[in-house]
Amino acid sequence: MGIIENINKVFDHRIRLGIMSILMVNDQADFNRLKELLDVTDGNLASHIKGLEKEEYILVEKQFIGRKPNTRYSATKLGKAAFKKHINALEQLILKKGLK
Fold first, then answer.
1. What residues does each domain of the chain span?
2. What is the C-alpha to C-alpha distance for residues 16 and 32, in angstroms, rounded to an integer?
């Protein structure tokens, strides 16, 4: 099995890659924080969150802060493992290409 098989297609898009990167270094982030950090529209962010949620890579928690709804996200164990595997594969691919 080559390095390329460990590259996860779910993380191909820069927004999904960004979401997971943020959630790997933060225990959690709310929708507005992700939107601000990634500089994307509500709809664009929501569609990529749904993709990660469908794969069970992120956990979605809805709550109210005062009277305002707040949705926050965190990476699941499965998501963290898949993302680490993906990043390791990218690093190996870069190193392998650099040796030639």
1. 3-93
2. 15
